[in-house]
From TrEMBL:
This protein's UniProt keywords: Dioxygenase, Iron, Metal-binding, Oxidoreductase
Pfam families membership: TauD
GO molecular function annotation: 2-oxoglutarate-dependent dioxygenase activity; metal ion binding
Record bears the keyword Magnesium: no
Listed transmembrane segments: none
Domain TauD/TfdA-like: 114-387
Taxon lineage: Eukaryota, Fungi, Dikarya, Ascomycota, Saccharomycotina
Family statement drawn from the similarity comment of this UniProt entry: Belongs to the TfdA dioxygenase family.
Keyword Metal-binding among record annotations: yes
Name of the protein described by the UniProt record: TauD/TfdA-like domain-containing protein
Amino acid sequence: MTTITETVSVPTATNIVDEINKKAEALTLSIDVTKRVQGGIPLDLSSKLPAATKARFDRHGLDYSRGYPERPTNGTIPLYHHEAHAVRDYEIPYIARGKDADPEFKALFAKATEVKHLTKYIGTELVGVQLNDLNEKELDELALLIAQRVVVFFRDQDLSPKKQVEIAEFFGIPEIHPIASHPTGEEYRSLRVIWSELFKSGTGKVETFRRNKVDTAVWHSDHPHEFQPAGITHLHIDSNPEIGGDTLWSSGYAAFDKLSPAFQKFLEGKYAYQTSLHAYVDKDDPLGGLKKVERKQPIVRTHPVTGWKSLYVNRGATTRIEGLEPEESKIILDYLYDVYEKSLDIQVRFRWTSGTSALWDNRVSQHSNVHDLVDEQGDAGNRHGTRSVSLAEVPFFDPKSLSQREAQGLDPKRED
């Protein structure tokens, strides 16, 4: 009797995985992200505009009759990470305003009834000056004043939205946000709407005192991820509750001067990575999660107008220091954040009133918003304003530059 034995091949786990991988190579994945952000006027909130805002818009000819606010059209909104990264991914000519301005500010101060320095290192209020009335010479002096004092305030303004656009164009490269809402009209693309009602509608959440945790409460500077990051930001609040919603600023000049000379020298010439606030789909890895735009910037940068060194990191956007181990980077960055955030002597806190403008230099500062406007019913007092950002130079560090205190003779010049 003959016995026939048949050999049966049992696939191993490795064989099964290899077979699945071979089949998966032929798969394609199509994800439609076109509905992530809707352009135009997806939600008309014009009926909820504060009375003071409507009055300002009416006085200055801003037509919101077809709806408010407006977003860029669908075809111009970047949907993927590579599209967002390509926005302004090249150097644009920039003029450093204030570099040749009168250091005594004679033209600008002549229009002021009072010049109030709010703290020793940061913050000045010009009383009696109307931004609408400033000519280029006076704006040039204002640029120098902002560069030195970090943030300058103007109350009781009757500011035209068109004038706010013109001021942004004078100070640098107007930042036209690829996603954010702007006042109705293509001519206002460089203004961003800052409005509690819009934020509530966009998130669909009702914030309360206990649940009010907002990103802008984290200390940050504007747009540090840009190829040419923000220089001067101009926020005009045309409607604000009687109390609440303060903003704090901290000086990057003074934060740098807080460091020991040895630590200053260690940081100079090093780079840190800065990320965008918004995140986008990576077309090459759509299942890998949303991805932010990221660029590396000098940790210590030199201001082109004052020539002073400033510490250029912030908790809201800085992720890591180039060339260091993650643990080393975290320890150093956390300490630098603390210097900025906990040194009360280099900060100013400002209380907003309706009709107030603040102009600050992001190259030499961080700011943080106090979110105490909401109550248990989610009412945020219907605060409204418009913000412009003027992008500046490609960040650089000049080894020959001085710190603020060295330049002012308050500290001896460092011997390297």
